[in-house]
Request: fold
Amino acid sequence: MLVISHDLKVVADVADRIAVYAGRVVEQGSATEILYEPKHPYTKALIECSLLRPSDTGELYAIPGSAHSARELNRAAVSRIAV
Reply:
């Protein structure tokens, strides 16, 4: 079974192993390793976001940057396939 989610706690409830994907697989390991000993900054940020703890300013933690549009992702996928 493949589970895709930004909430690593949810994934850890149903999976023994986790792979974190940020344009490519940046980290993988057992659910315990990923949740309690994350190595990659993106993995750490996903965990921090899932805690839903407000900062000192009352803001929830957000991962900086922006997501690509579906159109951009589709073009990138097509360009990789059309080799």
Notes: The chain has four helices and two strands. Strands lie at 17-21, 25-30. The helical segments are 8-14, 31-36, 41-50, 70-81. The mean pLDDT is 78.
